[in-house]
Each structure stands twice: as structure tokens, then as C-alpha cells.
Amino acid sequence: MSYLRKVVAILWKDLVAELRTKEMFSAMFVFAVLVVVTFTFAFDLRVTGERVRQVAPGALWVAFAFAGVLGLNRAFILERDRGCLEGLLLAPVDHTAIFFGKMASTLVLMFVVEALVLPVFTAFLGIDLFNGWLLLVVALGTVGFAGVGTILSAMTAQTRAREVLLPILLLPVAAPVLIAAVKATAGILDGLAVAEIGRWLRLLIAYDLIFPVVAVMTFDYIVRE
């Protein structure tokens, strides 16, 4: 079996398990919509239209980030609690395939939630978020966030306080990618040229590349300890 087929097998296993229960997806979607609604009424965005473009980027990425944390919290916990993680580690596969399979399943869930939240966000705030460059920023930011989160999720799954420990470790480490995503989103909503937000796009791309490389070098040690 090729390396890619092993990654796809892990991805497919996670998606089938999620389709049977829909626990993670439901929690992620409801939480993201709740954040959008809360920000809308907290800042009176329906009434005070001039503040929409100032608040929208931050509200959007807060919704995505915390929904992502919910999904990442369950990425390895279910395997650990059901005794499946040991079976995966004993399988004759490169352990990095487990990382990329878990990262891919997290990405699929986050992309589905984001695809459903963006229309809700558009309806509440009255701004068009279906812009090609904005969708690119969402994709790059999500990949970077999921890459960091999957590593830390594997690390914290071994601890007792894993539900609390993951956000504490993840949010500071993922802060650069979230800041870059917010800045790039704000620039696009303000109508800035792509060249003016180029440094934020480069930072997002750097995160997307660096953390998978870090995972390849450290994931075997992380899941065994």
C-alpha cells in the first residue's frame, strides 16, 4: 500500500466514524454560529454598519479558531480512550501517515463548518465574504491552524487535563497564523491590493509548510511518549 493510500485510509476511517455520530461537526458548527451571533449583537453590527469591517475579520477567525479547537480536542482523544491508538502505532505504516491522516480529517471538518458559517456570517453582517482572495486566506489560515493543532493534539492526548491543556498550548503557538489571517482578511475587506497584504499571505504559507515538516521530524517521538 502506498503512503498516500495509508493517509487516505486514516482520513476515511475518521470521516466514517464522524458521519455515524456527527458529534464533532455538530459541536463545531453550533459553537461557530454562536460566536457569530454573539459578536453581531455585542457590537451592534446590524445597527452600526461602519464598525462591521473593523470587527468582522476578528469575529470570523475567533469563530473558526475555537470551532477548530473543539475538533482538534477530539482528534486523538477518541483513539486514546478506545485503545485504538496503540493499534495504529503497531500497524506497519510510517507514523507520519497518522499525522497527515488526522490533519486531513480535521481540515475536512473545518472546511465544511467554514463553508456553512460563511453564509451565516454574510447574512448577519451584510458583507460579501465570497471573494476569491478571501477564500484563499481562509484556506491558508485553516491549513496552518490544523497543522499546528494536530501536533499539539497528539501531544496532549496523553495527559489527563487534555481538554484544558490543548487550548492553552495551541492558541499562543497559533497566534501568528491567526494574526496573519485576521490582517489579510481585513485588508481584503478594505479593498487593499494583494501586494499590500503580501507579507501576511507569505506568513500563512510559511506556517503551512513549516509545521508539517516539524511533524515529520517529531511525530514519531510525540506519539510514543
Can you put this structure into words, describing what you see?
The protein has helices at residues 3-21, 23-42, 52-75, 77-81, 84-90, 95-125, 132-156, 162-189, 198-224. 83% of the residues lie in helices and 0% in strands. With 225 residues, it is mainly α. The two termini are 27 Å apart. α2 (23-42) packs antiparallel against α3. The protein has nine helices and no strands. The chain is globular, with a radius of gyration of 18 Å. It has one domain (3-224).
Query: How large is the count of helical segments?
Result: 9
Mean pLDDT: 81
- In the predicted model, the low-confidence regions spanning at least 5 consecutive residues are none
Fraction in helix: over 70%
Q: What would the principal axes of the Cα set say about the shape? A: globular
Number of strands: 0
The main sheet comes to: none
As a percent range, the share of strand residues is under 5%
Which H/E pattern describes the elements?
A: HHHHHHHHH
Q: Could you tell me how far the N terminus lies from the C terminus, measured between alpha carbons in angstroms?
A: 27 Å
Total domain count: 1
Cα gyration radius (Å): 18 Å
Structural class label: mainly alpha
